[in-house]
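Q: What residues go here?
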């Protein structure tokens, strides 16, 4: 296993995955740390679809392009080890695509709750996750996004979506979509909002029903592989 990305935003994955220039990666939750996506793309030249309606995340995506094309430094709340992780990498920017939507279990518009500290990038569609202040955003299912982009398969799915992961993954499995790799941050549990034990129920489904193997559990940032 190796960790690709910063200490904060990186993920553990096998050192050698069967990814290539034709592989499709969905990365839900971009924030202000694309280090994992950048390094994964640079290593495998894979197609990465970044899915995040957060205004600061959209701006950060633009800044990544400016950094590599014009050597312009980042604004925003950048991790201390960000530059050291991505500075020497050579991503194919033409294979990084942005989808300005949130992920959910149906196509609709939802409240997107903000954090109290306006410098923090993350927002959540889960009520009581952060504050009562919100934006209205468009959300959709993985199945619908795949259809819009003419994708029949996802090779790797990464989710850091602030509590929405339960509904999104359950719906994805209900739609018979099974990425080869699942990288999931279980925020509902980590933020102490999982009063109904939904996280453990989903993990049990992933392993016992959908036949994934857990490769590593890094404080409920879990990497699974399809058996």
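A:
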């Amino acid at each position: 296993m190796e960790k690709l990305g910063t200490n904060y935003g990186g993920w553990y994955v096998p050192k050698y995955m069967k990814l290539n220039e034709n592989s499709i990666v969905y990365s839900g939750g971009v924030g202000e740390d694309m280090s994992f996506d950048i390094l994964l793309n640079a290593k495998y030249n894979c197609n990465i679809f970044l899915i995040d309606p957060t205004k600061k995340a959209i701006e950060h995506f633009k800044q990544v392009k400016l950094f590599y094309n014009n050597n312009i430094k980042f604004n925003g709340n950048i991790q201390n080890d960000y530059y050291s992780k991505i500075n020497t990498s050579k991503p194919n920017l033409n294979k990084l695509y942005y989808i300005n939507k949130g992920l959910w279990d149906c196509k609709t518009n939802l409240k997107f709750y903000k954090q109290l500290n306006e410098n923090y990038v993350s927002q959540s569609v889960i009520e009581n996750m952060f504050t009562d202040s919100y934006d209205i955003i468009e959300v959709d299912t993985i199945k619908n996004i795949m259809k819009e982009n003419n994708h029949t398969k996802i090779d790797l799915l990464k989710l850091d979506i602030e509590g929405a992961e339960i509904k999104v993954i359950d719906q994805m499995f209900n739609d018979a979509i099974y990425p080869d790799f699942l990288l999931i941050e279980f925020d509902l549990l980590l933020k102490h909002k999982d009063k109904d034990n939904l996280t453990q129920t989903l993990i049990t489904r992933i392993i016992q029903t959908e036949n994934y193997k857990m490769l590593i559990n890094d404080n409920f940032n879990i990497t699974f592989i399809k058996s």
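A: Context that may help when evaluating the design: Residues 2-104+143-226 form a domain with the Rossmann fold fold (CATH 3.40.50.150). Residues 181 and 225 are 5 Å apart (CA to CA).
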